[in-house]
Structures are given as C-alpha cells and as structure tokens.
TrEMBL record:
Basic residues: compositionally biased ranges: 52-62
Example of a GO MF term: DNA binding
Compositionally biased region (Basic and acidic residues): 37-46
Region described as Disordered: 37-76, 230-261
Name of the featured protein: Transposase
Protein species of origin: Candidatus Propionivibrio dominans
GO biological process: DNA transposition
Amino acid sequence: MPAHEYYPECRHRPKIFCLARRTHIISRDSTAIEARESIAKKDKAEVVPAKPKGKPGRKKKGEVRPAPEPSPLERQRGQTLEQMLFELDTACATGTKKNAQGYKISWKGYKLHLDTACCGVPISAVLTGANVHDSRVALPLTRISAQRVDVCYELMDAAYCSTVIREDIQAAGRVPLIDHNPRKGEKKEFAPHEAQRYKIRSGAERCNARLKDESGSSCSGAWTRQGDVPLDAGSGGTVRRSTHEVAAVTRKRNASAKTSFKTSSQLVARVVHGQKRGN
C-alpha cells in the first residue's frame, strides 16, 4: 500500500514501501551511561569569558542595542551535520535528569542518544557527555536517520519540546509528535489519533533497556580494551553476554590494576555498530 494512503500526512511524499529503507515511525530518546572515569577538566584557554550584561529596562529614544545571539538550536539549523557533531561535548561529565518517578538523579559518564524504529531496531546513535541536553542532539539525529531511512513520524518526549525542532522536522516533510512541556504554563495534549500513535515511543525505552541488560552497556563490568570506535553508530546486531560472564569479566578486570581499559561507552558504540570484541 502506498505511504500516502496509509499515512495521510505523508501525501506529499508518495513512495512505495521498502522494508530495507522505509520505517514509518522513529522514536528518539537518550539513556545514561555510567563510567568509571574522572570528569574531564576544561582547558583554561577553551573557557569562554562571560559576556557583559546589557543595560536593564527599556531602550532609550534613539538607542540601538545589538540583536540577541541565536540559541544553539537556531544555530544548528544553518550548520552541516559535521559542524553539529563537532560542537557536542563528548568528554566524561556529570549529568542530571528526572526519572520516571519525578526525582532528580545524577551520574558521571555519558549519554547515548538513539533513534529507534517502531520494531525496536536502532537506526542512529550519537554518544555525548552526560551534560549535553537531549534537545542539542535532536537535529543531528534527524539528519543521520534521514540518510538511512524514510520516515513519516518522529516521536520525542518533553525534553525535545522546541519550536525550532518542530519547524525543522516539518520543513523536511515529516510529522513531529513531541510531548508538550508546559514550562509553568498550560499543557497541550495530543489529539486522540496522535496520542494513540505516540504510544509507540515506548519502543525506545525498551531498546535502551535491552542494550543495558543484555549487551553490557551499564557500568557494572562492561569494560573493553582501548581502541578507536566511531561515536556515530548505525543499525546492527548485538553482542550478548550472560550475567555470569559479565561478573567474571568484572572480577578479572578489577584484579589487574596495570591493564588499561576504556569505559562502557566504546562497548555501546560497538553494540550498535554490530562489531564484535577484538575487531
């Protein structure tokens, strides 16, 4: 069945279904990756000095004030994919977020940002420091996924609630379904058909859980030897390990203090890339 008949919103992009290329819905989410690393210290030369604050109050008659600088998201719209990824912090850092119960939790390490198809297969992945906000990676993931699959809907939680993200996705001919963040205002609910489709976003949560539970992407023993692994990952298989194997590897790694290891961030990239250990 043509896409413009099954999904009326995609009438302007009539294409024939192709399972290898088309996925109708992408769910976007991030997950915490704890790491046994020291937090990277910023070089003093890289620290940007604080900008002087403007005069408070209204402008005087004839006064000309400089235009406000664009936000990081507005700046991303005019950048290439390489420029977007270059500006993202990839060093170990401290992250804080609210969990499902509404409590703030903090961790030291990284964030894995994933685009997941409705069937639970990872499409794109970007690894950043834990201090990078989810919305900063939305546009890079959109560009990467658009190169690999044809998408009609992009589902995101309230962390991605931004007019810039919505406009960019709509300009590309796709439909953004982003949970509204009221920001101390009135929350806007989804239409009934949008709310039903938004339920598919739970696939991203399950994908994150499987990477942590079955592929050793948590901090409890999932360490791998040093080596260069691309941070931008594509779709692929997983490297499965049992609980006993992870525990044995942990004891062996902790017993040898002279062996140098990298954190689980590299293993996560290998998992999504479908690479096996030792390659």
